[in-house]
Amino acid sequence: MPVEVKDVPEAKRYEARQGGESELAGIAEYIRTAELIAFVHTEVPPKYEGKGVGAALARASLDEARAANLRVLAICPFYTGWIARHPEYQDLLYQSRSKVTD
Q1: I want to staple 16 with a disulfide (CB 3.0 to 4.6 A). Which of 26, 43, 55, 91 is the partner?
Q2: Whole-prediction pTM value?
Q3: Do strands 36-43 and 26-32 pair parallel, antiparallel, or not at all (unpaired)?
Q4: Given a cut of 90, is residue 19 above it in pLDDT?
């Protein structure tokens, strides 16, 4: 069954639903600035685990981050692990540009 993912900016999260159902199959909460999106929490109810909901949330949200030219800060352990397993998204990761001076 296909997973549909939608950004809901007023709730500061991506929402996933399976096959047009009204029930949420998962969420990915974020904090967004003009240059950065930080994924802080992902939740998939047990009923939907193992059905690709988390992967659909990650892929759709990261594709949108790329299209918006945003850096990604993966605070959520799910996003950290998912990006580590998908090197095609690692270029999105935020890298601190500050330098320590003596």
Answers
A1: 26
A2: 0.90
A3: antiparallel
A4: no
